[in-house]
């Protein structure tokens, strides 16, 4: 039922704008409005804070169905979970109430600020600092590649509180867009997910109350990594949705396009490609849903399974979207058809929330 409901909404209210959002590299406002009106913009927020209380699998299905028509728009529910999960996992009750309530209501999105210009895969090498000053912390630094920066009201920011302790000297904070000293860089000019703004976040002597710290001092990096264990599965879902969208489009096209006097779908070479695409997508789906169930239960092997789902599904998305372009021939290579956008959008799923090389490091360290 959930899938049917999200699919109808996505096809009616999000799909019609997907090409324009990409072409104009603009924020998918229509998608945000439609998702918020239907309580799908941050489905993971627990009911006690006014949220929909969706479990990890339901959240994955929402993201998958939105990504099937517009990958940029699927970053609304995905990044709302990424940005706010540190608060849900490790924040005080007061912090949860303060920030989950407006998120659930649609009064402000949440972003996640871990990466920096010189700290990507090695996120613990970050330089942003938070220095205690009375009952406040003062933050200084630059966060890079922040999804929905400028659009979000709330930002989970990881910063160094004790430079002698590396990852154990990092703490997490909630920073608000309206805090004095917060500003944003120009939107990055990207290959894909062009509708999803990616900007630098500048923190210039941002003074915030000490109770905005998420959990204890020095636990921020552990919270950030624990968050990724759960949210990598949402990237797998995004990849899955992009791949399914490309297969669905190509499947229709091959029955219409005629060469050598018959639909190209009649050629076995085409049928085998479609069979392989569907097989890979189904394998990715099973891995992703199983990982979502593990996320919900908090299983001990979640770290491996989340990394495996993200890595596998994103590789599948890249292969399937590339094949979809191939199935449309020259037409697939143009912006008159959606598959080239899907191919460009798929690429990011192999890079963010840890590159697929990093996923392999994570898996190797947590072999089942
Ligand atoms: C569109 C977009 C949105 C993003 N959104 C966010 C966000 O909202 N919040 C956020 O915090 N970050 C975000 N990121 C950052 C993203 O997570 C990083 O780009 C990613 O983790 C890689 O870091 P890097 O770009 O510095 O690459 P690098 O770490 O410099 O890696 C370069 C290459 O080296 C490889 N590599 C690095 N170390 C190793 C190793 N030990 N072994 C093998 N290979 C290695 C990498 O896999 C990669 O191929 C986003 C990025 C993009 C492009």
Task: State the gist of this model.
The protein has 368 residues and is an alpha+beta fold. The protein is built from eleven helices and ten strands.
Mean pLDDT comes to: 98
Number of helices: 11
CATH topology of the largest domain: the name is Butyryl-CoA Dehydrogenase, subunit A, domain 3
Q: What would you call the structural class?
A: alpha+beta
Neighbour order of strands in the largest sheet: 1-4-5-8
CATH architectural type of the largest domain: Up-down Bundle
**What share of the residues does DSSP label as strand, in percent?**
15-25%
Q: Calculate Rg over CA atoms.
A: 21 Å
CATH homologous superfamily title of the largest domain: Butyryl-CoA Dehydrogenase, subunit A, domain 3
**Number of domain units:** 3
Principal-axis shape equals: elongated
**What is the helix fraction of residues, given as a range?**
40-55%
Instruction: Characterize the biggest β-sheet.
Output: 4 strands, mixed
Parts with pLDDT < 50 across at least 5 consecutive residues:
none
Hetero ligands: flavin-adenine dinucleotide
Please report the first level of CATH classification, the CATH class of the largest domain: Mainly Alpha
Description of the molecule:
It is a single chain. The strands form three sheets. The chain has a four-stranded mixed β-sheet. It starts with a helix and ends with a helix. Helix content is 53%, strand content 15%. The chain contains eleven helices and ten strands. It has three domains: 104 residues, Orthogonal Bundle (Butyryl-Coa Dehydrogenase, subunit A, domain 1), CATH 1.10.540; 109 residues, Beta Barrel (Butyryl-CoA Dehydrogenase, subunit A, domain 2), CATH 2.40.110.10; 144 residues, Butyryl-CoA Dehydrogenase, subunit A, domain 3. The protein is α+β, with helices and mostly antiparallel strands. The model has no long low-confidence stretch (mean pLDDT 98). 50% of the residues are buried. The site of flavin-adenine dinucleotide has 22 residues, from strand 1, strand 3 and helix 11. Flavin-adenine dinucleotide binds next to strand 1, strand 3 and helix 11.
